[in-house]
Design goal:
The protein is α/β, with parallel strands linked by helices and 422 residues long. It is globular and about 65 Å long. The chain contains 12 helices and 20 strands. The strands form 5 sheets. Strands 9-7-5-2-10-1-11-15-19-20 form a 10-stranded mixed β-sheet, with helices on both faces. Strands 14, 16, 17 and 18 form a 4-stranded mixed β-sheet that branches. Strands 3-4 form a two-stranded antiparallel ribbon. 30% of the residues lie in helices and 21% in strands. It binds guanosine-5'-diphosphate (GDP), 6-O-phosphoryl inosine monophosphate and magnesium ion. The site of guanosine-5'-diphosphate has 22 residues, from helix 1 and strand 3.
Length: 422
């Protein structure tokens, strides 16, 4: 079977983890293809909440093959902690988890470089999660990186030392105090721990699954507006978060991509720096943040909140080739009398556009809004499209008309069960 791709269409944290967990029973394979521990994917079921950073969200189903693909950057220390944190599930993760030998490894010194670069940027900092994502992708592209398969070969420690020496030479140029030594013992312990897992050429594994008609879901991290090429550069992450990233990050040919599920919140959030045209600085923004518990799953930072932005959503739909939309957190908007949606941008010269400008700068784009009525009722227990309040149906219809993509799932709460499917 072809590979279905599930992606965030905004600035991350759209609810990807919840939906992957919900859809997982339909799939034989769930694969992560980019990003790393900057991701925080939340799953809630049976009264418990779990946040996964690097491990695919199909991990709780023993029969599913979970793959960490070559496009990912992996922190072994965080990986070990994550696995140990899941001990109570009594799942043998050495059986249902596979790591690509081509996955890049995040070293402790990558995290130091991340912090040094951010510190040096001052007020222009990206707001990185400080997990070493940018520096490890930098080393990948510069052809310096160490990969998971390298830990099996002799001389790994020497190669590690050579790369760290390079990093230390860079760090000397920054006014930045650090202690690398204390991070090294846990790092090498975690590298040993990694050896207990299935380290494979995952491009063969996944293409064999395609050939044998298995169902495969590629789980995106971050969101399309954080994409290194098409996001709000430079306030982006360092990987291709878009559909094409699933091809390069797993070794899947474009002709083998099937459905593309685009996940978006019924409003917008962003954590970290960077432009956000529809951001709310008033009581409504604060109310959405409170009702939606909008605090980062990885860093705990408050998420900035604002109205749904259709030019940005349509841009993501275009570059990703989205075939189905899933709307998340509709229940959060139940508190509002009316809901605004940005349909166009008004530019500095007075012109109106639906296109994303080359450089998204808040001061240069004024959102043009349409206002829709709120539904002002508890929808957290609604089970079908038919039972939705009329105002919610109108909201859904409005978005479908403006995006020309059907909304197939509406999520009305964090739990697995609070999911309405068309
Ligand atoms: P991800 O990074 O895309 O997986 O999203 P996160 O897990 O970082 O953030 C989404 C947050 O919203 C998590 O706390 C989820 O439990 C929660 N969530 C997901 N769907 C819904 C929903 O429909 N309603 C509400 N109220 N919360 C949701
Ligand atoms: P999930 O998968 C939200 C943001 C950071 C920062 C920028 C660059 O949970 O949706 P990085 O650490 O990648 O160098 O940070 O990207 N960011 C995310 N925001 N959700 C994420 O992942 C994110 N991963 C990175 O806040 O602004
Ligand atoms: Mg998240």
């Amino acid at each position: 079977m072809k590979v279905d791709v599930l992606l965030g269409l905004q600035w991350g944290d759209e609810g990807k983890g919840k939906v992957v967990d919900y859809l997982a029973p339909k799939y034989n394979v769930v694969a992560r293809f980019q990003g790393g521990p900057n991701a925080g994917h939340t799953l809630e079921f049976d009264g418990h909440k779990h946040v996964l950073h690097q491990i695919p969200s199909g991990i709780f189903r023993e029969q599913i093959h979970n793959i960490i693909g070559n496009g990912v950057v992996l922190d072994p220390v965080i990986f070990k902690k994550e696995i140990e944190g899941l001990a109570k599930f009594e799942i043998d993760f050495t059986k249902n988890l596979y790591l690509s030998k081509k996955t890049q490894i995040i070293l402790p010194s990558h995290k130091l470089l991340d912090a040094a670069y951010e510190h040096a940027k001052g007020k222009d900092k990206i707001g990185s999660t400080l997990k070493g994502i940018g520096p490890s992708y930098q080393d990948k592209i510069a052809r310096n990186g160490l990969r998971v398969g390298d830990i099996l070969a002799p001389g790994f420690e020497e190669r590690y030392r050579n790369l760290v020496n390079k990093h230390e030479r860079i760090l000397q140029h920054y006014e930045f105090e650090y202690n690398l030594e204390e991070a090294e013992a846990p790092f090498f312990e975690a590298v040993e721990f990694l050896k207990g897992f299935n380290l494979v050429n995952s491009e063969y594994l996944i293409n064999e699954c395609i050939q044998s008609n298995e169902t495969i879901l590629a789980e995106g991290a971050q969101g399309s507006l954080l994409d290194i090429d098409f996001g709000s550069y430079p306030f982006v992450t360092s990987s291709n978060t878009m559909t094409a990233g699933a091809c390069t990050g797993l070794g899947v040919a474009p002709k083998n991509i099937g459905e593309v599920f685009g996940i978006f919140k019924a409003y917008c959030t962003r954590v970290g720096g960077g432009p956000f045209p529809t951001e709310l600085f008033d009581d409504t923004g604060a109310a959405i943040q409170k009702e939606g518990h909008e605090f980062g799953a990885t860093t705990g930072r408050p998420r900035r909140c604002g109205w749904l932005d259709l030019p940005a959503l349509n841009y993501a739909i275009m570059i990703d080739g989205v075939t189905q939309l899933f709307m998340m957190k509709a229940d959060v908007l139940s508190i509002l009398d009316e809901i605004k949606v940005c349909t166009h941008y008004k530019l500095k010269d007075g012109s109106i556009t639906q296109e994303m400008p080359f450089q998204l700068i808040d001061e240069d784009v004024e959102p043009v809004y349409e206002t829709l009525p709120g539904w002002k009722s508890d929808i957290s227990q609604v089970k079908s499209f038919a039972d939705m309040p009329e105002e919610l149906k109108t909201y859904i219809q409005f978005i479908e008309e403006r995006t020309k993509v059907p909304i197939k799932i509406v999520s009305v709460g964090p739990d697995r069960t609070q999911t309405i499917i068309d």
